[in-house]
């Protein structure tokens, strides 16, 4: 009998010394047109969790609960409810699609679930509400387009035609680019809205050719970005191509081949390779052997997950305490692989590091490092 | 003038692709009275099969564009023919007697299966894939209009194919059998025609046309995408209906008409060319209200 | 007695499935259900009982899950989808009118709700949602009237595609950003407040059950009445029906309109529950899902509908590990069922002519 008690006691103390498991949620589009980015984000968050679990100094053992919001508001709200109502989930790395984030913020607030947005760029997500639960590590499209517009104006482009997709992503980019570019003295030659799954752009591009712009600004994602650029070439419309963070990925270049040369794009955050631990991120990512690349927003998902787990380490698995840890008072100049993070009073990361990219020899290269900035190669005029 | 020429060329290319897909729809309807909704996704499957063939051959070191083009086309045709025949044999023929809606839904779902398989199992399937440019990219300048050589080739091949199909249907014994089955299945069987074989062959023909449409799509846009079949299928269906289901000429006319509508829509509504599909489908609906059996008309009359 | 036992067993099973978390337990439960279904089919197990039993079972289930927000959300979604599909059922199952734009009419109801909710009492808003859908439907049916089956399919497919594009491209109804809805308030009930200490979704479940009961009552009355007989006649043989003096056009319009009204009301409620609508919700694929549910459940049979809705909504939720392969598996499943059991899971029994 005594032996049994000792054994039981030993087992209990062993259990007590085992780390408590804490669950965090990842919500993103894993199916549908944006699945590539969603899967990249999921893999990055998963990487963050794995690395943390391999760290003996961590106080808790983490489990990532992966939920698919299908880039649809009702599915997003459903997933937000699932995560929020499950009391074992103490925080979330949430949302790439802006519409979904807009729909879901109310739910995060209702359940008091701390949520860190990793990819949605619509400013309203953090600025149209006062919810303490909602934060965001990536920049909004305002910053990106301000830099973009200034760049174009500085490089002598006066007359720009815009093609944008009709989702909130494309429309937002269109709005802000137009605003900043006209402020900088430029003129918008024409503005064309296209659906996100449109195949044929010859009609729009033919009209644009007749307008004789200096450059073509594209607000949208890779699938149609590739088509537009390829069809521009077919029609002999070889003006400068200027895009947003949506096209900064290898698939854009791979699908276009040599035509992609010289395309410009702008993205929030510094490139992973340039950051202190950026190279490590890519190394570790590749070591895990994920089927999909991290894509443009993978580093942000990773940074959000790390930020969340750090808050949990400090405050314990209590939602309210975690929210406190994520408040502006505590998140100032925090180092992450996406650059320094500082939350303003709306939980928005206000370090607007925007990196300029240009395609050079089949790779996205930082503008400052490229032969274009040094003058060895010229942008299209 | 050059602008008009460019629009005409754009419209013609689109029209040819829609026509190829519409002819498939019309063939299937004629023979079996069914709408094969996975046809659009069969186009996508053909394009991707061609892409795989290209990747395999270039890995083996083959460089000549002519050989590659031939291989790509053959691979696409083979793949779509197989898929088409399998769909006919295992999905459509067994439920031939069921309400039309069931067949529609089964093929619709089959289309989803094909689409998802491409997305999930093709490496990096959810992103657009580059389709090699295997046609010469030179062209002639006619005034201010730049006429591309590859467009001309594609249009010519498309026209040849449709002409060949027409000849097959009207001048060969097989075509006779197909027409017989389309007109009256029971009598055709009584006359000794092997119904099942005719159906399978028709599906194979329709699918091969789809393969060409897919390869054409890939060569024209230099890009293929897992979802390319969905809208193409709906438009092909709309074009076939516009011309009158079961009518080969109708399908061709319908295809070009739809392309024309889209181009006109894009030009006439410059403030939001995204409306062009809305415009095109809207006109289609109105046209159908005016002439319910299609512009050229369905051939068979309804038996009471 | 048999009916009560079946209802109780179903309730327990549903409770277990909704509470289950681990993939192994979920898979086991599903296999159990499939086995039970196969055995029941072999033994030609028939059960019939008053509908009240089913409602009672639903209420019991809701109370058992009173604190589980997510499960209650799923249940409400199932109820809403059942109402929407009942509307489609009137169109397909009774009048044979093909409607591939179910989700679009659902969306019309939702958008009407979003626009009217700040201005009118919410009970009226729900009804107006249905009315708007019915109105749009009657406009759409005009071209469809003169065409036959597959042409009608094309018209509704075109509308389904147009609807989303139109909403996205122009900003009058919020554009791609969508619209937000205020809290649903009916009489003294504020739907976003929690019920005692339990989930606030309980009120939605209650409202959902009420709507299902109403829709079911309407549909069953319709079926048993001379209207229903007329619709059946139109569906089964237009030419014979016309030669008997039935005005085909009038009955098709009637079926289409009634069906869309029901679907529109469901859409309005759904919009309130989610609190936010966007064009993305109402894509063609959503319409396809509604049609699939109809086919899976057996056209014309409301109970099959409920079962199919439950399967389509709960299964993808629970099998999260294969979430990427969801659509593929779902499509394959529909194909298999259509091939091997084309009448659906619970086919509609033949009309009994005795009174």
Summarize the structure.
The complex is a heterotrimer of chains A (381), B (304) and C (355). Chain A has 381 residues and is an alpha/beta fold.
Walkthrough of the structure:
The complex is a heterotrimer of chains A (381), B (304) and C (355). Chain A folds into two domains: 216 residues, Rossmann fold; 142 residues, Rossmann fold, CATH 3.40.50.2300. Chain A contains 13 helices and 14 strands. In chain A, the strands form three sheets. In chain A, strands 7-6-8-9-10-13-14 form a seven-stranded mixed sheet, with helices on both faces. In chain A, strands 2-1-3-4-5 form a five-stranded parallel sheet. Chain A has a two-stranded antiparallel ribbon with strand order 11-12. Chain B is mainly α and 304 residues long. Chain B has a single domain, classed as ABC transporter involved in vitamin B12 uptake, BtuC (Orthogonal Bundle). Chain B is built from eleven helices and four strands, in the order ααααβββααααβααα. A two-stranded antiparallel sheet of chain B has the order 1-4. Chain B starts with a helix and ends in a 14-residue tail after the last helix. In chain B, 54% of the residues are buried. In chain C, helix 8 packs across helix 9. Chain C has 355 residues and is an all-alpha fold. Chain C starts with a helix and ends in a 15-residue tail after the last helix. Chain C has two domains: 64 residues, no CATH class; 275 residues, no CATH class. Classes of the chains: A alpha/beta (381), B mainly alpha (304), C mainly alpha (355). Chains in contact: A-B, A-C, B-C. Chains B and C meet through helix 4, helix 9 and helix 11 of B and helix 7, helix 12 and helix 14 of C.
